[in-house]
Amino acid sequence: MTTIDAPAVGTRWGAPTSGGRARASGEPVRVLVIDAHPVTRCGLVRITDEQHDMRTVGEAGSAVDALRMAAALRPDVITIGTSLPDGDGLELARQLRDRDAAVGIVILTSHGEDDVLFRALDSGASAFVSKFALISEVLGAIRHAAVAAGSFSATGLAQALRHRQRVPQRLVLSAREQQVLQLLSAGRSIPEISAELYLSVSTCKTYAARLYEKLGANNRAQALMTAVHLGLVSDSRRR
């Protein structure tokens, strides 16, 4: 796992710091869990509360509730899923970082593409980890965020930096475009993508159209062939 200093950010709730929130010796890391899916929240709460050095202080499934609970509870670490019913988890991370420089922020995502990783870095997050990672890796990210809120830790960061240098700028996709591309490559229809990402069908069609334009394609098949060639998605035939 690679760690680098995170971008400088402002603060409203506390003074800027590269470390985490001050805690009394032996006091557990207080964690707030934010995710749209109740099953994911339940799992995170369970594994957190099983640790001797952590305890969950709250959970929420929306950005609005997350902001309210973060202000009221002042947790040491907040875990955030990237897709929320009322907003973007990475934008939520940016808002939370602007309000509190000392809080640790862990981005948990099922979409581990390079662009999402870089957006997490830009948002001021402390760590980026896949929801499919080992439990030990998730817990490691939380512990890192608790003591080094101002640095950024992510598996594959060095490789992502090298890949970004190779990809033409016009093919650098937004986080949503990456999500749509991954779901298209998985065979999802536009209505299915709409439901999974909590977006309207027309918005998903717009993202697909942008993808086709960036990839110089006229249809899904051409877009996916180009995306595989550029390493933006994996070739399903090799799985």
Q: What features would you describe in this structure?
A:
This protein folds into two domains: 2-160, 3-Layer(aba) Sandwich (Rossmann fold); 167-238, Winged helix-like DNA-binding domain superfamily/Winged helix DNA-binding domain (Arc Repressor Mutant, subunit A, Orthogonal Bundle). Helix content is 46%, strand content 17%. It contains ten helices and nine strands. The strands form two sheets. It has a seven-stranded mixed sheet, sandwiched between helices. It has a two-stranded antiparallel ribbon with strand order 5-6.
CATH topology of the largest domain: Rossmann fold
Helix content: 40-55%
Sheet with most strands: strand arrangement = 1-9-8-7-4-2-3
Number of domains: 2
| CATH architecture field of the largest domain | 3-Layer(aba) Sandwich
Rg estimate, integer Å = 18 Å
Identify the CATH homologous superfamily of the largest domain: Response regulator
Structural class: alpha/beta
Order of helices and strands: EEHEHEEEHEHEHEHHHHH
Instruction: State the name of the first-level CATH class of the largest domain.
Output: Alpha Beta
Compute the number of helices: 10
Estimate the mean pLDDT confidence.
Answer: 83
Percent of residues in beta strands: 15-25%
Shape designation: elongated
Q: Main beta sheet, described?
A: 7 strands, mixed
| N-to-C CA distance | 24 Å
**Total beta strands:** 9
